[in-house]
Amino acid sequence: NNDRYGNASSGGFNQWFHRNIDMGIMREMAGVLSPPGATGTPGVLAAWNHSNPGNYNPNNPVNFYGGNYHYNPFNYFNNREDITRRDRLFGDISLTYKINSDFRIRAAYRKSLVTGWYENKVNYILERSGRQTGTRAGYATGESFFADDRYELIGTFNKKVNDLSFDIIGGGEIVNISDKNITANTRDGLYIPDFFALSNSIAAIQYSNQRNNEKRRAIFTRGSIGWRNMLFADITLRNDWYSTLPANDNNIFVKSFGASFVFSDLTKQALPWLSYGKFRATWGEVPQAVGPYSLAVTYGVNGDQWAAVNPATNYVTQTTPNGIAAANIKGATQTTKELGLDLRFLKSRVGVSATYFHASTVNSPISITVSGTSGYNSKTINAGEITRRGMEVQAFAKPV
Fold it and tell me: pTM score, two decimals?
């Protein structure tokens, strides 16, 4: 049995980290420095896995005392700082106009905004205290922005005629999604030790700037009919248009049907301990599309650039993507069937809900590996069938 690189956790500890290491002693040794060099070279962080005695050099302490491949983990984490901040703002505002007692119109705006920021710092003492660790002093930072804006216009009709109740809604939705991020990090160390700034990078900084935008439009309607608040049936129709699908075939039409029976209204005398009981069954579809910029070949812009005499002929280098989408790629639908039972007892203070579900997606957009001789490593196609089935049970209790 050879773990080695095959397992990133156990393989790494077995090959590079002795099993008899006492972590208590490692904690006590954190921050301990080796003797300085004979020529005034500062000491390095002492390590358990130092080199062979033959590598001892009085002028260069790291040759013998430095950590070989690995640091004392307490030294490593004590000399780097990773800060992450994430802020989220979400909410909605709506305006409802009541035309009459049966019909009303509602306009709504919903927003979800998520911003993020991070900063990573690696102290210089790690760089000068390790042998073959690959760790350099450095600084990295980045920001991210995600916004989801939704506009809705919905009409609602409610009517009750004798024992029958009718509920109908219809409307449209506009969804705009914007996802942006920018990251940058130093390379090959820092000119001035522990001065954490991108401009202090020894080599040209490495950076990335990505922008993704996605739009979706939809119209939908839902109708429901009820009888004596005991029997219910409903149907939903929805059509979505996606900016991420081919322009000539970018819509997905889905539908769903459902029925429920509140049988507890018929068992009040026979089962007085049953506060509420309902059977329910649904059959529905959920649309599935591909992500932004998955259709056409998009080229990343590199940092390499050079100018010509005429600014109109300035150049930058670009890279081809590793993946490509099939020419006839399209969206898919997930079909879900559910059967459920809801029960409540003790004046609805205790209850249980059980649901059996079966979900299947056919011809889902998936990525497959292709030969590198094609110029790409992967291709997105419509293929396969993904099936999920199972049982969900939930219980609740309210204190008296």
Answer: 0.76
